[in-house]
Structures are given as structure tokens and as C-alpha cells.
Specification:
The chain is mainly alpha-helical. It has helices at residues 4-9, 17-45, 54-73, 80-103, 109-113, 116-128, 145-166, 173-198, 206-212, 215-219, 230-259, 267-294, 299-331, 355-365, 367-380, 392-395. Helix 6 (116-128) runs parallel beside helix 13 (299-331) and helix 11 (230-259) packs across helix 12. Belongs to the ammonium transporter (TC 2.A.49) family. Rh subfamily.
């Protein structure tokens, strides 16, 4: 799911497909190795002995998801060396955050692992704020129907396997699978409805749906095993989708320019805001469960539980923002050769790309204009449909 699903999910830029999938694969396999070593180090620091096994591998794949999410925020702006340094730094900081939550706040291990969405989103946003803004005239950050189709393919793949992802660490796996599926199902239905309602012409917008259908899975990730009523999971899925759709309208258009947030793939409203909603839901659910167990008598215990949940949330997001800013400053030193803004969002600076592929990409972006001109010429000179349909290279002046 992390390699194929998120790799294709990030293939939204029209001239950055090779880099989206290729760099994602490289970062995941490197990050998993580093995560296994870091997990073993955490066990050693706690004074335990635990040989690396399949459980360590599962935890590593969950942890490296934070790196993939952060990559979406700086997609097209960072070169491969910067991405590798980002991967190593983020995993170190994420495991430090987990260690603080588990050791000092005594948060259960499987709950600290699900903070990947919160940490990854805000680490990526803080990191992206240190990169220069793309010039207004640069149009390589746009998508095409083909790139959107590949991105939707990755979204569907992630959607199908998300219940197994959320149940990989909790003990009550069947309960986690059920609640995750219910939240995702409601998110999918609500995404189509809200997309049509918020558009001026009543049509579906694939960019919104692609982000919103995953919101329920993000929100319910940290409490999937603790929900015993299906309507709670469905309600959280609905609220998460609403936040994502409204976030794509308000946050991206209003707050991003004001706060100078650069978010290529929309990770803020796809993963960040739903993760915040999930953290709030975890606090409420913990208070309700503790209140029912104690019959609302031991208020001091309720206050302590709330303090632990809120403290873990604040510590995670604060660590992500601070370390993201620090990492962003490190990535822009001259030694790492930061990408010039004119080279943003382009495969040809990192990959051997055939000239025909680039020409076809340009042809796709100019297809409507060329077809209109060819129809006008055909009407004027004999009406033969194929008379003025030239190859893309000839029309665009390429050999």
C-alpha cells in the first residue's frame, strides 16, 4: 500500500510522474531499513531485548508513512539528495517524539504509531515553508486527465487496503477493520455528495474526491479498535470528509497564501486536518470511557486522562513543526544544491526522459487549440479530416 498506493497517489503533476513513483519507492525502502534499526534502538533504551521480526517490519512501514506524507508537501521542489536527508532526519525526529509519548506520557505503543499522519503532515508543511515559492508563470504544477487518472488509481488502492493498515498494530484487529471500513465508506459517499454541492455547475471534481475519500481512514486511525458503535465511526467519516472538502476551498485559497504555505499535494487537508479531528475524537472518547468506568466519580482520573491525550497531541504537532523548520533550513544549504525554481515539477532534470514523451506532454496540453485550428483549416481547404492533423512534434516545431 505504501509503495504502490501512495506512489501513484502522488502522480498528480503532469511532468513529474517518474519522480513521484521512483523517489517514493526509494524513500520507502530506505526508510523501512532505518525504522527497523531505530525500533531496535528504542527497545534497547527501554532495557528490553526483542529480536527484529515481522512486527518490527510492520512498525517500520507504519512509521515510514510519515515520510511519504511529508514528501507530498514538497513534491517537485526537492532534489533526490534533499529527499534522502529529509527521510533520515524525519524518522529520527518521529522516533524521538514516539519515545517521549511512550516513556513520559505513558501513551500505548500502538497509539503513538498512528501519529504518523499528524506528524508527517505538519512536518511536511513546516519543511515546505523553507523552500522558495514557484514563480507565478510556472504552469508545470498543473495536472492532466492522465495524471489525475493515475492518482485516482493509487487512491483506490490505498482505500482498499486502509483497513488492514489501521489494524496492523492494534490488538482488536477485527474491530479496527470494521470501523475503518465504515468510516471510509461514509467518506466515499460524502465526498461525491459534497463535491457536487460545492461546485458551481453541480459536477464532480476528481481532485476533491481523490483527497476526501481517505479522510475517514485518517481520522479513525488512532481510535479504530476502541469504537464499539458503528454510528460513531460513520459520523467521524462524515465529519472528516466535510473538513477535507471545506479545507480544499478555504484553507488552500485563503490561509495558504496568507501563511505562505506551499502544499503541492494538499496533505494539509487530506491528512493534517483529519488527523487533528482524530486526535480530538480520541480525547473525547477516552474521557467518555473513563467516565463510564468510574461512573463519573473520579474526576481527577478523568482530568489526568485528558491531560495525557492532549499532551501527546501537542507534543507530536509541536515537535513536527519545529523539527520540520530546522530540517527545511538544513536542506537549503549550498552543499545539497537546492533546486532552482525554474526546475520545479519536472522529470527531465533527474531522469532519462525521451524527447517524444516531453513532446506528447506538450501536445496534450495544447490538444484543444490544435484540434480547433485543424478543423478550421479542414473546412477551408477541402474538408478532409486528416489533412491538417500533424504529429505533435511537427506542430510544436520539434524534429
Amino acid at each position: 500500500m505504501v509503495i504502490f498506493g501512495f506512489g501513484f497517489f502522488l502522480m498528480v503533476l503532469r511532468r513529474y510522474g517518474f519522480s513521484s513513483t521512483g523517489f517514493n519507492f526509494l524513500l520507502v525502502v530506505l526508510g523501512v531499513q532505518c525504522s527497523v534499526v531505530a525500533e531496535d534502538l528504542l527497545v534497547f533504551l527501554r532495557g528490553g531485548r526483542n529480536a527484529a521480526g515481522l512486527k518490527s517490519l510492520a512498525k517500520a512501514f507504519v512509521s515510514v508513512t510519515a515520510v511519504v506524507i511529508s514528501t507530498g508537501a514538497v513534491l517537485g521542489r526537492a532534489n533526490p539528495v534533499q529527499l534522502l536527508v529529509m527521510t533520515l532526519a524525519e524518522l529520527v525526529f518521529f522516533y524521538v517524539s514516539r519515545y517521549i509519548n511512550e516513556t513520559f506520557l505513558e501513551v500505548p505503543e500502538h497509539l503513538t504509531g498512528t501519529h504518523v499522519f499528524l506528524f508527517g503532515a505538519y512536518f511536511g508543511l513546516a519543511l515546505a515553508s523553507r523552500f522558495p515559492e514557484a514563480p507565478p508563470g510556472l504552469d508545470k504544477d498543473r495536472s492532466t486527465p492522465k495524471s489525475e487518472l493515475f492518482s485516482v488509481l493509487g487512491t483506490v488502492f490505498v482505500w482498499v487496503f486502509w483497513p488492514s493498515f489501521n489494524s496492523i498494530l492494534p490488538f482488536s484487529k477485527m474491530q479496527a477493520v470494521l470501523n475503518t471500513y465504515l468510516a471510509l465508506a461514509v467518506s466515499a459517499v460524502a465526498a461525491f455528495m459534497l463535491s457536487a454541492l460545492t461546485s458551481k455547475d453541480g459536477k464532480f471534481r476528481m481532485a476533491q474526491i481523490r483527497s476526501a475519500v481517505l479522510a475517514g481512514g485518517v481520522t479513525i486511525s488512532c481510535i479504530a479498535e476502541r469504537i464499539h458503535h458503528p454510528w460513531i465511526a460513520m459520523l467521524l467519516g462524515l465529519l472528516a470528509t466535510g473538513i477535507t472538502i471545506l479545507g480544499s476551498h478555504c484553507v488552500q485559497r485563503c490561509f495558504n497564501p496568507a501563511l505562505k504555505l506551499q502544499d503541492t499535494s494538499g496533505v494539509h487537508f487530506t491528512f493534517g486536518l483529519p488527523a487533528v479531528l482524530g486526535a480530538v475524537a480520541a480525547v473525547v472518547l477516552a474521557l467518555v470511557e473513563a467516565g463510564i468506568d468510574t461512573r463519573w466519580i473520579e474526576l481527577s482520573r478523568l482530568g489526568y486522562d485528558a491531560f495525557v491525550c492532549i499532551g501527546a497531541f501537542c507534543q507530536t504537532i509541536s515537535t513536527a513543526l519545529i523539527t520540520g523548520l530546522i530540517t527545511g533550513l538544513i536542506l537549503n544549504i549550498k552543499l545539497l544544491k537546492a533546486v532552482h525554481v525554474s526546475k520545479y515539477f519536472d522529470d527531465q532534470f533527474y531522469w532519462e526522459v525521451s524527447f517524444k514523451i516531453i513532446s506528447d506532454s506538450l501536445w496534450g496540453s495544447s490538444f484543444s487549440t490544435l484540434m480547433k485550428n485543424s478543423r478550421d483549416l479542414n473546412k477551408k481547404y477541402g474538408g478532409k479530416k486528416e489533412l491538417f492533423l500533424f504529429p505533435a512534434q511537427t506542430v510544436l516545431g520539434h524534429p
